Amino acid sequence: MAKVKKYKQRNILMKLMLAPYLFLLIAFGLIPLIMAVLEVPGESLTNPDGGWDAFKIVVQDFRFPQAVKNVLGFMAIYVPLTLVLVIVMALMLDVRHTKWSKYLRMAYIIPASVSGAVAVLVWWAILEPTISPIKSVLNAFGIESATQIWQTKNLVYIIAIMTFFTIAGNWILIQYGSLQSISSEIIEAARVDGCSAFQLAVRIKLPLIRKYVIYMAVLLFAGGLQIFVEPQLLTTSVYTGIANAWSFDQLSYELAFKSGDFGGASALSIILLIPSMIGALVVIFKTDMFDDKTIRNKQESEKADL
How high is the pLDDT of residue 232? Predict the structure, then answer.
């Protein structure tokens, strides 16, 4: 009886811990999705007859192809750059543990405390030749005016750099944490077999954290699709008009709040949801990130004991 009571108590605690997440998922995930689907066929100035043509109208919008080009160009730089540098820095941080390691980890996370809005101001100051702390470097490349840098064609590079420095610190610590899950016996055995630090990183550690790397790649991809704050602040506060409808989310914002086309904005949001959902399914079914085999075996053994 004691075991049965303990088992039931643990199930109740599990459900109580899960309840807040389920509430948030339903309130800010499922309900908005249902509302978006219901909003798509609504009538608007661009879709006066209403109906599901909203998807076709959005895709044929003259701003949509440019947004595709901008976002894909941004992600082609941002995602590989972040993946490679984060993994390299995490592996380097894990090479040797000293009393200074915790201070070094703290140094990585400090830049990550800078939000996207603040990052725009910081990088504007860095890339403004008249006040830049790297003014001599910019001048060495012949850059003496901000207009030489702040051009629409350069935004894929500038925003990729901004976003990288905003998010990299957090991911370095996350991947460093994933490296700590590797058994010390495996590491010692590899060292006994003569693995150098480089071989240990590439042949042992990296394959063992593969699922975390895939998880990171999917989240970076999904986050890149939703880029909004940086280009929006640039075009409204720093250099007016430099990034109008530059990203998908900006285009969705303009459709909803400038054109009054809530159906088109909802259609675009649903279109963006599809690749994110595919990425989530890849993480769930193509990696062992959420493998619950051990947990299920334990639960089955407990039930058998009861």
Answer: 92
CA angle 162–117–139, rounded 5-degree value: 45
d(CA 65, CA 246): 10
Domains and CATH numbers, the chain: 54-299 (1.10.3720.10)
Tokens of 229: 């704050």
Q: Checking phi first, is residue 145 left (phi over 0); if not, alpha (psi -120 to 50) or beta?
A: beta
Confirm if 218 and 265 have CB atoms less than 8 A apart: no
CA 220 to chain centre: 3
String of DSSP letters for 179-238 = HTTS-HHHHHHHHHTT--HHHIIIIIIHHHTHHHHHHHHHHHHHHHHT--HHHHHIIIII
Which tokens in the block code for residue 129? 């030749």
Instruction: Provide the token pair at 133.
Output: 């702390």
Dump pLDDT digits (tens) for 36-54.
999 998 888 888 887 888 8
